[in-house]
Amino acid sequence: MFSLLQQTAADAAHEAEAAVSAAAEAANAPGMPQLNTDYFGNLIFWLLVVLAVIYWVLSRIALPRIGGVLSDRQGAITGDLVAAEEFKHKAKEAEAAYDKALADARAEAQKIVAANKAEIQKDLDAAIAKADAEIAARAAESEKRISEIRASAAEDARSVAREVTAALVENFGGAADPGQVNDAVDQRLKGALQ
Amino acid sequence: MATEEAGGLAFHPMEQFEVAPLFGDGPVSWYTPTNATLWMALSALAIVGLLVVGTRGRAIVPNRVQSIAELLYGMVRKMVEDVTGKDGLKYFPYVMTLFCFILFANFLGLLPKSFSPTSQIAITGVLAALVFVGVTVLGFVKNGAHFLGLFWVSSAPLALRPVLAVIELISYFVRPVSHSIRLAGNIMAGHAVIKVFAAFAAVAALAPISILAIVAVYGLEVLVCLIQAYVFTILTCVYLKDALHPAH
Fold first, then answer.
1. Which residues 14-33 of B have a C-beta within 8 angstroms of A?
2. Is the dihedral of CA B106, B109, B111, B112 positive or negative?
3. A71-115 per-position pLDDT tens digit
4. Residue B39 is part of which domain span?
């Protein structure tokens, strides 16, 4: 029964092939080797062996390994992202701390500058006051000396004038009365020295 | 063998799909290592190289090979999750096995002189049948008789439902056929077309056109290899979703 079917199948194949090979060159129609059932057992046996080997290798070794690598990578990427987020947060905190420190330092510096300025101002005021006092004292002294000099200059001028006048009177042949000369000189000088 | 027949063109586009024993010339029994065995084993080795050796560093910052492995993992996992939902992730290793096997078998089949296991209807048929049987059993185990609700379109008018049920039932049983023939047919057609163009290269006048055509078809095939692997996988996910959530 089976061989009969096989026979008819082979016949059909030969007929189909005959058309093909006639178009090409038909001396001995080769037929489709794929339909030769003699080799089916062999092909199927080796196919099942190879499939079993591939399935075993893939399911036991290759696929778990590749799956593991992929999930490891996913884990590593997720971990790295989390770490990066953390670092970013830390960086932000550090920046805020730095800004705060900078502001504090600036305020401190300003305070110190203000304090120094006040101190310097105080010293300066004291120094100015002292200098003013000294200048006033010096000015007073100078005033006194100028008035002394002026007084002495007036006295010198008076005595020189008296001597010159007495000498002039004597040279003009008059007798110089010291009392009269003194009075006259004083009289004239009073207006000039005032 | 492709022999020149008195200056004529020799077309043997189907020869590349023949199964031959790897050692010697004896008969092929079910356990004989054949060229199909070799190229399926190479696919398995390539998958191990990419997904196991390539990821041995388990680096947080992946190198190139590990990036490709992760890309593949992420793509298939996302596909399973998007189509079937969270509860479909339990079957992700099997879907990944299917996708990797088909992808690597397709791409390795593009190497000159290689053998494409995915061009064999026996192989794609078994792949599709495994999905079909697995999904059907899973549907009944998970949902019991509710799984039959898949065929009873409750949103349609009552009178139409029996008709639709018949159509749904037929389409359900056609699934593994289309599922398997789509993949084998695509791969076979591309490879056969390349071989036909290659035969034309024997004629000097046609050789440049032939080579250009081979390059173009080869480029298309690279695309087809990826797309067919993707299509097979996403259909598997869709069928799985029907099994897990049969309600329309």
1. 14-15, 17-19, 28-33
2. negative
3. 999 999 999 999 999 999 999 999 999 999 999 999 999 999 999
4. 34-244
